[in-house]
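Form 7-S
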Amino acid sequence: MPEADVPPAPEHQRLSAGRRRGRRARKDRAGYLFLLPWFIGMLFTVVPFFASLYLAFTDYNLLNPPKWIGLENFTAMFRDPVLVKSLKVTFVYTFVSVPLSLAAALGVAMILNKGIRALPVYRAVFYLPSLLGASVAVVLLWRYVFGLDGIVNALLGWFGAPAIAWTSDPDYALTTLIILHVWTFGSPMVIFLAGLRQIPVMYYEAAAVDGASRWRRFRSITLPLLSPIIFFNLIQSLIASFQTFTQGFVMNDGGGGPANSTLFYNLYLYQQGFNQFHMGYASAMAWTLLVIIAAFTALTFFSAKYWVNYDN
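Output:
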C-alpha cells in the first residue's frame, strides 16, 4: 500500500504514545536530578585537575599571578636531590610493604576460611586496623609504641636486647612505617576471604585423593583460582602506597626525618607547595606522580596475562 494511503493511527493509540513519551521524559528528568550531585562534584575535580596541569608549567607562589615558564619545573626535578631521595623512600616503602601486606592478608584469610567459630567477630577485628591505620591517632600511637620507652623496646628488654631508637634512627624509621602498613591488611584480607569461599571444595578433595600435599594444593589450586583477586588487591595497594602521606607527616612532625628517611614523595610535594609556596613545582610533581602510578598500573595490567587466570 502506498505511504499516502496508510490510514492515520487511532486517537487512543496516539494518546498512548504521547503518554509513554511523557513518562519517559519524566524518568529522564528524574535520572538527571539524581545525577546532579555527581555533576556538581565533578566541577570540584575537573577544574582543579586542569588548573594543576596549567600551574605545572608556571612559576606560582600562591601570592602573585602565575608566570609561564614552560618545562622548567620538570627539568628542575631532575636536579633536585631531595626529590630523588623522596622517590627512593616511596619505592622502598611500596615494594616492601605491599607484598608483605598481601601475604599477611592471604595467610589470615586462609586461616579464617577454615570455618572457625565467631568468624564475623574475627573478620571485624582484623578489618578494623584498615579503617584506622592511616589516621593521625593511630600513627601517634605507633610512634609511642616504637619510642625509646615504648612497648617494643620493653619486649626487647625482656630478652636482654638493647633499646632501639626506632623513630629517630634513619636505619629503622622507615621500617616502623612498613610494619604499620603491613598491620593494616584487613581490607585485602576481607576480599581474599570472599574469593576463597568461591573456590569449589571438590577441587581440594580431588587433589587430596590424588595425594597432593598442602603446598601443592595451594600452588596449583588456590593461587591460580585466586589470581584475579590477587591482581585486584595488588593494583589497589600499589596506588594507595604511592600516595602515602599521613604516616610520614605525623611520625616525624611533617619533616620526613630523621635524615629524610621517611620523606615520602607526597610529603615532599606538600612541603614544596604549602611550606615553600612553590605551587607550580608542586603541581609538576603531582603530574609526575600520576605518570609514575599510571606506568606501574599499566605494567601490572600487561603482566596479568602471564599469571592471572580467569576461569571461564
